[in-house]
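Milestone M4 deliverable, item 7.
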Amino acid sequence: MVFAVGGRLAALALSVRAAAPGWIRGAIERSASRALGRDLKINGDFDLSLSLTPSLSACDVSLANASWGTEPSMVVAGRVGVSVKLASLWSGPVRVSDVAMDDV
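Output delivered:
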């Protein structure tokens, strides 16, 4: 019985992890774009890791420049990784525990 429940929970966690990045990618792009006042685009791979410190990794990320800027993008990164404190996702504000950027 315990193994059956554990197996079902593991299968649920894997299916959520497999399905989540598609809709989370769009939600992150929209939320960040709204907060920053410019478009954030995730053009490459996107991965979500569920744990007590959830993390996400996105490749080929760009943040549009201000309308008066000379370049189309303010920031372009080959990879961006972010980890957050789990409890802050519900209680707010979201607390970021780690940020890593490569090929900026």
